[in-house]
Amino acid sequence: MSSFLKNLPSTSSLVAAYATISTFLMLLKSMFDLMVPEKARESIIAIVQEHIISRFFTSFTFVIEEEWEFGDNALFRAAMVYLPTKIGPSTQTVLLGFKEKHKFETPPETGVPVWGHVVDEFENMKLKWTLKSKKSKNMLYSRERKFFHLTCNKNHRDKVMKNYFPHVALTARSILNNRKGLRIYTYDQSHCYWESTAFKHPSTFATLAMEPDLKKFIMEDLDMFVNRKVFFERVGRTWKRGYLLYGPPGTGKSSLVAAIANHVRYNIYDLQLGTVKSDFDLRRLLTSTTNRSILLIEDIDCSSNSNVAQERPKDSDDDDDDDDDDDNANAKVKKKSMPPSSQGVTLSGLLNFIDGLWSSCGEERIIIFTTNFREKLDPALRRPGRMDVHINMGYCTPAGFRVLVSTYLGIQEHDLFVRIEKLIQAVEITPAEVAQQIMKSDQPEVALESLVEFLSAKKNEVDEAKTKKAEKDTKQEEKLSAKNGVDEAKTKKEEKDTKQEEKLSGDQDNGQPSESEMRSIYLT
Q1: For residue range 433-444, what is the model confidence (pLDDT) as tens digits?
Q2: What is the torsional sign of CA 206, 212, 214, 217?
């Protein structure tokens, strides 16, 4: 034994040998990288891994990236929903968070952190999930891309593909369908992806200040749409529905959108067209939205970086306007100087987005446009097939007033109702203005009195405006009548002066008769 220990090399000799071998291997790798082209290196490495290294390893790894074929990867989203349900005592790191800011007494929700591991068992298979991330190499923006590594025994590869992945997708769908909370997404222009937060808007059809018949029609139309998948497949149309909400500000367009989302239990994608750089980005956004969702474009006629309200060619006569020539020329030069990726969304791009071939990239979608002025929108944008239902969100009506009072004050009848309803029919007032008045007090009497005063003041303003307009019209008529009288008197005076001049001219002709008098006499 002692002789064996004596024959062993010293520690310094082992370190020196290790350093020599490491240096040789590094030199060999450097020479390999310099002398062998990149594609050849990749092929050689793949062959080595397949025929040599794989014989010593029994595991196989699936890579599930966040994006797939020009859009989000549905399997990645399903895994993000499924895996938190599999977090157990063996999980070493867990991501925690609250959706509700003020419900800290409830346990936090769990998630999978980056570089975290989750072990799942399915049909006697052991599967290990690992969430990883990498930085995007895009020159325009830098974004963290997440992806999963799913490691299993290589003999179970086919079984995982056929049985396990469908199980993950179905389980995730069931979890999403049973969730009470909805999400609202907004587009992050700097990183070109959707960011979401919890959607907790309390608006429902029961609280909307709308006519009962209109409310009933919208609910029945939504229910019919949700249950007509087979119908849309049979007639060969994309399973989508378009709604155009128009009316003055404060008439409840946003509240109706929230009520629709709460009724059908769809997430909302709130898109501001001014943040979209081009039609290409618009198509990319559409493909990255999920099924069973609402795409909302509010105030479409006011988009600052788009030209979708009216995009018709101008007549040649319009070019003769000297006042606008300089501005138009500058605008054209500026537009030509802009790169194609920054000119905003065009009407053609938007039409293809909502009703063209790209609209078929998904199903069970509701598209909602809102505007204050429907007449500003191009007719091609308003036609059926794009905007199937047009809903006029008008001023408050007696029926809407009763809904608001019942919701805010909890009463069904009051002595002031008749007076208030007459005032509402006499003036134009939005549901937001009515709600603002009745929110001033929890006591019905005080709140209704405040509303009566507000409506009375509004009616007085309307009456004064009508009186001033009538007085102005009367003055204009009197002025016009006086002008006509002056013109008539002037005409009569001119005729009289003409006759006097003719008579004076006849008297000054040395007693000779005029031409007419000579003819008369001659003919006689």
Answers
A1: 999 999 988 899
A2: positive
